[in-house]
Design goal:
Oligomer: heterodimer
Structural class of chain A: alpha/beta
Structural class of chain B: alpha+beta
Strand content of chain B: 15-25%
Radius of gyration of chain B: 30 Å
Shape of chain A: globular
Bound molecules: zinc ion
Number of strands of chain A: 11
Number of helices of chain B: 15
Chain lengths: ~400, ~475
């Protein structure tokens, strides 16, 4: 089973702290001081992290043991080459940390049959995360239970003097009481299911029916601009990535391209040779919008603000939302940019709005995995809901 | 055809902050190469820029000192260009939302008229790394020094209000004075803490069209800026007259050949907002706090000097051009030195003496207290001006009081009429020719005789009393 790891920690686990005994795997987009941190890219080959990411140092301070770094996709974008989720699935690690750019942690959790959580934007420090699109990506968590995720998030959340982009206010204790089903409304976004094939649609409906059976008030809600989430993500994300990807220069680390006649050519050729095909398509798409269609980028930013406001209205009207995880694309590992987006069509919205999103495995083969979504910074209540639903299932067995 | 130039300046000023703009590394670009670096300013994967409060304060003071309006919101963008002095491929710069807008500087134009040169905006940005090219060896190599990477800069962009090299030079001199006043930078073009690019175009005089401009870089002094602009105006005027089109490009000033030469442009793209540096929101309270820290600016100070101390406009301008000089002057006056004496001694004695010793005005042994004590002895006629100049030299070397130096070294002026009368008698006896000249009506001879008495007193005699006694004896 070692093939899922890119690097394994040979040190011994610490003995105390609230998270003592917890083994946690990370993806190579998460820096651990002294470990190779190539973020799955040739551009960073041989780069060794100089400092721990804040997510790592906080877990270690709480007594957790970072057991190794698992194989990931280039810069954590998509899941094509990723082995994320397998360490938790096979009980090699109790949890795994990975970047969630458009739903990677949630889809990886789905594939592994475990819980996957994307925290609210602004809750967890970005320091030491080696990603591409800071305004959309956050550190996602995979674990066997919502309780484990809540313990981890309690250690991780809060201001960091290494990341000024986080809000200053300290989040409260990560505790919320179990929801009272009769007083809790869960909205189902009609538009989010439209792309699902019939077989998946009926499985999703079975999952929603289970919520109703547990006593929750479920009602259909509408989000007419739902189809805009993916294009906004495509434009904003790719422009952000393309503008800043030059920092992964593959000159000071990585491999310099041979044969250049001068330093300028060497820099450009090295960058060109280092990135994989999928990433290059992504960056070229971003370069197109940045240099040829800057107006479209500005529009996308404006539309993003509107989507955030509309989503806020929706989460003011209901307590939680439930959505499918599947974007309706085929099960095969996507290779092209379009196929990749297709796979994340139902998850990318939460990266655009910064909302927390939780994926639970299906209760049975008749159901589909589904996402529960709360308002931004409503993370604790969302995890309490997930915990409640899992315990209802346990009792039902 | 008669042409006039349309000139705009872009001035980069290095802020004298203790740390860099987005990390805690010392802001000392001149240290040994790559000494002042960290993952953030080396732009390593996973690093996050953390905007410095000190940089914001120094930049804000600079803006207010130039009469600019601080914007309630400003933000950093990624200015993308690919060049090895910027290995991360983008520079953090306020391209879309600058720190301030407006402001300006008043200069005196060639005809002596006051002319306002407006500032379009002032924005903050980080400096890039420095490239060092070693071309001597068998394989030429280029080295990158990251000490300067991330140093805090502001860029001042003027309106195209300037018309002549004189305007540009006067603008830069006044700008330097004002920025030094607020204490945000030394603004030395020679040391690179002020770098100036000029955008120049020409048009037939009297028209108002804006023609294609050429950017000129690489001027290392205010004089070079003037020379480069003058050269560029004449080059473009000749080109237009010869029917050639001026194309948008960048040229470098060659100070040896005194010409501008075209350079290869850098690839530059539109700027995207940086997602990691938060938007900078300035509260009215912060702006008020910055305003309260603003010192009295040179123009206001000069005006006050004219009104309060009866100095001429020229004297007041001289004193107020340098905050250290102005402060020294006011300290002297506060200690009871007559304003004109204080002005005169600063300009003709102290400042040259400090320069000669390669010291700073504020950091030599000659404090305002000690110089005031010396000038008090002069005012009370206890020493004469010659002796005062010599005592000043001693003040640089020891911590004794001027009084002690005067006593110990016998600088006290001889005003005792009896002692002076004896000296005068000896001089008159020895200089009968001069005495005869004087009696024959040659006034000059009196000066000669005074000098002779002074010499025989070892420079200590009171010249006023000598004159009185001599006139009496000869009369
Ligand atoms: Zn640094």
């Amino acid at each position: 089973m070692d093939s899922i790891f890119f690097y394994r920690n040979s040190a011994t686990a610490p003995a105390d702290g609230p998270l003592a005994g917890l083994k946690i795997a990370v993806q190579p987009t998460v820096s651990v001081a002294g470990w190779p941190a190539d973020a799955g890219s040739k551009a960073l080959a041989n780069f060794t992290a100089l400092e721990d990411a804040t997510v790592v140092s906080r877990l270690v301070q709480s007594g957790a043991f970072i057991c190794g770094s698992t194989l990931g996709s280039e810069f954590g974008f998509g899941l094509a080459e990723s082995r994320a989720g397998e360490a938790v699935k096979h009980n090699i690690a109790a949890a795994e940390l990975m970047l969630d750019m458009m739903g990677e942690s949630r889809l990886a959790a789905c594939g592994a049959g475990v819980c996957g959580f994307k925290p609210s934007y602004g809750l967890v420090s970005h320091f030491g995360l080696i990603g591409l699109i800071p305004s959309l990506e956050v550190c996602g968590l995979l674990a066997g239970s919502c309780q484990t995720i809540r313990h981890l998030l309690r250690a991780l959340a809060g201001p960091d003097d290494k990341d000024f982009s986080l809000p200053d206010e300290k989040p409260g204790e990560f505790y919320a009481p179990a929801p009272e089903p009769s007083k809790t409304t869960i909205g189902v976004i009609a538009e989010a299911q439209s792309a699902l094939p019939d077989a998946e649609k009926s499985k999703f409906h079975a999952s929603v029916a289970a919520l109703q059976k547990a006593g929750f008030a479920v009602r259909e809600v509408s989000f007419p601009d739902w189809p805009l989430f993916l294009p906004v993500h495509k434009i904003v994300g790719s422009v952000e990535a393309s503008s800043a990807a030059g920092r992964y220069d593959s000159v000071r680390y990585g491999e310099r391209a041979p044969g250049a006649r001068n330093w300028n050519e060497m820099y450009l050729a090295s960058r060109g040779a280092a990135f994989g095909t999928l990433l290059k398509s992504f960056l070229i798409q971003g370069a197109y919008f940045q240099f040829q269609r800057y107006d479209a980028y500005e529009n996308a930013c404006r539309i993003r603000a509107r989507l955030v406001a509309d989503m806020k209205k929706l989460t003011d009207a209901v307590d939680f939302l439930v959505l499918p995880v599947s974007g309706g694309a085929s099960e095969e590992r996507p290779r092209t940019l379009d196929e990749t987006y297709g796979r994340f069509a139902a998850t990318a919205f939460a990266n655009v709005t910064g909302q927390p999103a939780l994926v639970l495995p299906p209760a049975s083969a008749a159901e589909a995995p589904f996402q529960l979504v709360g308002p931004r910074l409503g993370d604790a209540a969302l995890l309490a809901l997930g915990d409640f639903l899992l315990s209802v299932r346990e009792k039902g067995k | 055809m008669d042409f006039e130039a349309v000139i705009g300046l872009e001035i980069h000023i290095e802020l004298n902050c203790k740390t860099k703009m987005f990390c805690d590394c010392p802001n000392r670009p001149g240290d040994d190469p790559n000494l002042n670096t960290c993952p953030t300013c080396l732009w390593l994967p996973g690093a996050i820029p953390r905007f410095s409060a000190e940089a914001l304060e120094k930049a804000s003071l600079l803006c207010l000192g130039l009469g600019a309006e601080l914007q309630p919101q400003s933000a950093f963008d990624q200015k993308v260009y690919y060049y090895p002095d910027l290995p991360k491929g983008y520079q953090l710069s306020q391209a879309h939302r600058p720190l301030s807008r407006g402001g300006g500087i008043d200069i005196t134009d060639e005809d002596g008229n006051l002319k306002r040169l407006r500032i379009h905006h002032i924005h903050m940005e980080e400096d890039v790394a420095k490239l060092v090219h070693e071309l001597e060896g068998r394989v030429p190599i280029s080295l990158v020094d990251f000490n300067r990477a991330g140093s805090p800069l502001v860029e001042i962009v003027t309106e195209p209000d300037l018309r002549t090299p004189h305007h540009a030079m006067e603008f830069l001199k006044a700008l330097r004075t004002q920025v030094r006043y607020v204490g945000s930078s030394e603004c030395s073009m020679e040391n690179g803490s002020m770098r100036v690019d000029a955008n120049i175009s020409v048009r037939p005089r009297g028209t108002s069209q804006m023609n294609t401009k050429v950017e000129v870089k690489n001027m290392n002094s205010v004089r070079h800026v003037g020379d480069a602009i003058a050269y560029e105006i004449s080059r473009q005027s000749q080109a237009v007259q010869a029917g050639e089109a001026v194309v948008l490009h960048t040229r470098l000033w060659d100070p040896d050949k005194k010409v501008t030469l075209p350079m290869r442009g850098k690839f530059e793209g539109p700027c995207v907002p940086d997602p990691m540096v938060p938007v900078i929101e300035l509260s009215p309270a912060f702006i008020e706090e910055m305003r309260s820290r603003l010192p009295e600016m040179p123009a206001a100070r000069a005006e006050r000097f004219v009104n309060d101390y009866r100095l001429t406009g020229e004297e007041a301008a001289f004193l107020s051009a340098d905050p250290d000089v102005a402060g020294f002057f006011e300290a002297l006056v506060k200690k009871g030195v007559a304003p004109r004496t204080a002005m005169h001694w600063l300009a003709t004695q102290l400042i040259p003496a400090v320069k000669e010793r390669r010291l700073e005005l504020g950091a030599s042994r000659v404090t305002p207290e000690r110089l005031a004590a010396l000038l008090a002895l002069l005012a009370k006629d206890e020493i004469n001006a010659n002796a005062a100049r010599e005592v000043l030299a001693h003040l640089f070397e020891s911590d004794e009081t001027p009084e002690a130096i005067v006593n110990a070294r016998g600088f006290r002026q001889v005003s005792d009429a009896g002692a002076l009368a004896a000296m005068i008698d000896r001089v008159l006896a020895a200089q009968s020719a001069a005495v005869a000249d004087f009696r024959a009506g040659q006034g000059k001879a009196l000066g000669f005789l005074i000098g002779q008495v002074m010499q025989s007193s070892g420079g200590k005699a009171n010249p006023k009393i000598i004159r009185e006694l001599l006139t009496k004896k000869l009369g």
